[in-house]
Predict the structure.
Amino acid sequence: MGQTAELDIVIPVYNEGNEIVRCLMALKEHVKTPFRVLICYDMEEDTTLPALQLPDLEGMNIELVKNPGRGPHRAVLSGFDHSSAPCVLMYPADDDYNAGVVDELVWRFRGGAEIVAASRFMPGGGGLEGCPLAKALIVRVADFLLVHFARLPTHDATNGFRLFSRRTLETVHIESTKGFTYSIELLAKVHRLGWKIDQVPVKWFERPDKKSRFKLLSWVPAYLPWFFYAFATTWLRRPARTVPVKSS
C-alpha cells in the first residue's frame, strides 16, 4: 500500500491460526480508505503469526505490535499507543463480514465524529445472533438503559468494535484495566466532553467453533463504573472539566 494510512485498524489476536486470513482478506477486498493493520499479540508462540506470512496477504500494510502485558485490554491499548493515523478502529479478529462498513465508519469520522460506534442494535443492525442467553440479556439491558435513560448517543455502548479519533486517543486518559472496558469508558467520557458521537449498523455472530474472550463474571463489575459515569453526566450534570485528560 503506497498511500499514507488514514486509518489504523487495531486487531488484538490470540491463537487465531489461519482464521485471521479470512478477516484480513475481507478488509483487503472491501476497504477503500488507505489503512494499516496493527496485529497486537501476547506471545511469540501465537498461532496467528505464521498465518500472516501467507501469499494471500502480500501487499497489505500489516505491522506486529507485541503486547507488553497479557490480555485483550493491554493488547488493544498497545495498538493505540503504536497508532499514528487520524482515526483508529478496534476490529475483531474473527470478523470477516463487517469489512464493508469500515469506509462508512471513516466517513462519519470525516463528518466530525470523535467516536463512531459499530452498532448491533440500531435500525439495520444484526443484533446478537447465536449469543448465550445470559450474555445477551446483560448486554441488551445495559444498552437499552444507556441509550434511553443515560442518553448516550449510540444504541450499542457495550461493543468493543469502535472507531476513535486521534483527538480522543491523545486527549482522554484511560483508567480501566480489564477486557474491553476502555471502549465504554472512552464513549462515556467523550459524551461528557460534549464531543460528537455517531454510529453505523453492523452484524454480529457468536462463533460456535471459537471460545469467546468476553469473561462475563469477571468483566461486568469493571463495566459498572462507566455505566454509572454515563448516568451521572445526564442526571447529575457532571461537567466536562471532570474528565481526566492526558498531560501535554
Q: What stands out?
A: The first helix runs from residue 19 to 30. The chain has a mean pLDDT of 94. The helical segments are 19-30, 48-51, 72-82, 102-110, 133-148, 166-171, 181-193, 216-235. The two ends are 32 Å apart (CA to CA).
